[in-house]
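User: Earlier you gave me the apo prediction for this protein. Now I'd like the version with nicotinamide-adenine-dinucleotide bound, so I can compare the two side by side. Same sequence as before, with the ligand SMILES added.
Assistant: Got it. Here's the input I'm using:
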Amino acid sequence: MKGDNAPGSGSLEKEKIQTVGVQTMTRFGLLGCGAMGSAVAQAFVSGEIPRTLSCVYDVRAEAAEELAQRFKDPPRICESIGELIENSDFIIEAASQEAVREHMPAALKAERDVLIMSVGALLDDDVRDKVYSASKESSASIYLPSGALAGVDGMLSGAVVGVDAVTLTTTKPPGGLRGVAYLKQRGVDVERLAEPTVVFEGSAVEAARLFPKNINVSAVASLASGRTANVRIVCDPDAERNTHEICATGPFGEVTAKTTNLPSPDNPKTSYLAALSVIATLKKITGNIKIGN
Ligand SMILES: NC(=O)c1ccc[n+]([C@@H]2O[C@H](COP(=O)([O-])OP(=O)(O)OC[C@H]3O[C@@H](n4cnc5c(N)ncnc54)[C@H](O)[C@@H]3O)[C@@H](O)[C@H]2O)c1
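And here is the structure of the complex with nicotinamide-adenine-dinucleotide:
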């Protein structure tokens, strides 16, 4: 591939991506102004997402105020979820599973498109049913970014003919599993492990219940493949980073992918790739060139 547009020729970087897709006048609203919300807001500030962030809401008003200060032309700081829904056309959820449960059905019923980061909430059949039904009734769209996981594209394609099995192996350093009640109950002291140890093996649904802070990746794998993932969580005393290895099999063959995540440079609490995946999804939605699936 040697044309002007070949990777490495430099023309790819120079190419101006025209922004169409979601209407230019779309009012973007941000629900949740913590680690993830701040990373997304920064992409609006820098122009990486070539649109305007119209309003923000957080139960911690100070978090919303702090975030709004980054903007030359600050977004409206809403005082309630109702005000956010009223003043947005597209809501970016970066808050919590509870926020998905409590607010996403109402936002969708009001015909607001939503991007959901707390994907783990959708592993609950009742919540998923309410959220998906609200979208069906109103025709508003739900976007679920792949987050900190690679291989979602292959699972989505494979799901067209059916995925037979999905296995997710997540490896974490002890710090990433500190304080998990289930491990304490089982007498597992992650700080004292001498070698890599499987601390959980079971379904993604069970993992969601027992490891509520570590489940977005298994939820994305399950929803993309249409099959509840088998999850293995390994605690490795020598690991410095979180890794996720996915393996999906079916009539199409096998998809395997490994992701090693670094923390976000701006906020070590969040995986860099997860924040970048929201930004990439918003760029895809607002841009005219849509690569992947
Ligand atoms: N899909 C992925 O790969 C992925 C990756 C990272 C984080 N997440 C999810 O994104 C969400 C945000 O993560 P974070 O690291 O930014 O967390 P965070 O704790 O730093 O920030 C969350 C913010 O949302 C606010 N909030 C929580 N519930 C709310 C509600 N009901 N209404 C209004 N505001 C509310 C909090 O006050 C806080 O400021 C979490 O649910 C997390 O699990 C998903």
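For your comparison, keep in mind: The two ends are 22 Å apart (CA to CA).
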